[in-house]
Each structure stands twice: as C-alpha cells, then as structure tokens.
Write a structure and sequence with these properties.
two-stranded antiparallel sheet, two-stranded antiparallel ribbon, mainly alpha, about 55% helix, 7 helices
C-alpha cells in the first residue's frame, strides 16, 4: 500500500493547495466539498482493509501539517452543524475542522468495518471454508467465463475488464442474470 499511500498524500495535499487560494467563496466551497468527497471515498474504499487506521495515520500527519501551514488561521474548531451522514461517520473526531463554517474532514480518522453480505463460513484458511467457496463457484459457467477472459472490452482499462469478470462471477453465484443492462433473479 506504500504507492497508494503516497498517491493519497499527494492528492490530498494538492486539494489543500487549491483551498488556499480560491478565486471567490463559491470556488472555495467547491474545493472544500471536492476534498471532503475525496476523503470520504478513500475512507469508504479502504475501511474494510485490516490495520487501515495505522496507514491513514501516516497519511494524515503530512496532510494535516500541509493544511495547517497553507490555511493557518482560516481553520476553526467550530462551524455549522454537520449533516447526519457526516455526523455519524466523523462526529466523534476531534480532528474535524471548519473553514467559513464548512467542515473539512480529517484524512487520518477512518473507522474500519467488516465486509457486508459475506457468509461467515467463507474462510480460505480452513478446509471447510475453501469447500464453501468452491461450492458457491460451481454455479459459474466456465465456458462463458473463459470467453469473457479471452475477449476483453477494447479501449478499456485492465481494472474495468477485471471488474467485468468479478461481476459475472458474483451474479452467477447470487443466481442473477443480466440481459440488456438489466439484472434479474433466475428462477430454477
């Protein structure tokens, strides 16, 4: 995750730099909301990872220092009331700051969560868990999977094509089918 940490640090610092010199208060509001949406997105993506709070603490220190140096006296400890979803995720954080009443989310305050909709018996470290995973994957049509692997969508990224394979496997395991962009449950 070292390359990802550096990328997140760099992106957050660039966004803090944009907040420093806005053209007007509307641009400032936009830059703060862009920064907040980036932080929420990164937290939402990585919060399932083990020990992610340690990594984000390392990321958050230089970003916090950058914000403090760049924004200085504009950062306040109090501001407008938080929206309910922000209050739920970041309300307990003492690192939350405000600029002109708008909240600025702390990068280092991430709360881990277990993955949803995953059966507890799926564990690749035990023979029983591996058997449960393989039993679920028996529903995947292998010739179709091979076709999807051998015929990727051109002019799309590797990540896109990989997600395409994962989506097909997930829909097969869940007992759903997609036709014409619409997914529906199969009745057997």
């Amino acid at each position: 995750m070292d390359k990802r940490k550096e990328k997140i640090k760099k992106r957050a610092a660039e966004m803090a730099e944009k907040i420093k010199f806005p053209a007007d208060k509307f641009k400032e509001h936009k830059f703060i909301m862009d920064y907040n949406s980036y932080v929420m997105g990164v937290h939402n993506y990585y919060r399932i990872a083990t020990h992610v709070s340690q990594d984000f603490t390392e990321i958050g220190f230089p970003v916090k220092r950058t914000m403090k140096c760049r924004l200085g006296q504009r950062l306040k400890r109090e501001g407008n009331t938080l929206p309910p979803f922000v209050q739920q995720m970041y309300g307990k954080s003492r690192q939350l700051r405000y600029i002109r009443g708008l909240f600025v989310l702390p990068v280092s305050y991430v709360q881990t969560r277990p993955p949803k909709h995953r059966p507890r018996d799926w564990c690749v470290y035990t023979p029983e868990g591996r058997a449960a995973v393989h039993k679920a994957l028996e529903k995947v049509n292998i010739p179709i999977l091979h076709y999807l692997m051998e015929h990727p969508v051109r002019n799309e990224s590797i990540e896109y094509n990989d997600n395409r394979l994962v989506l097909y496997c997930a829909l097969s395991v869940a007992g759903a089918s997609c036709h014409g962009g619409r997914c529906r449950e199969l009745t057997t």
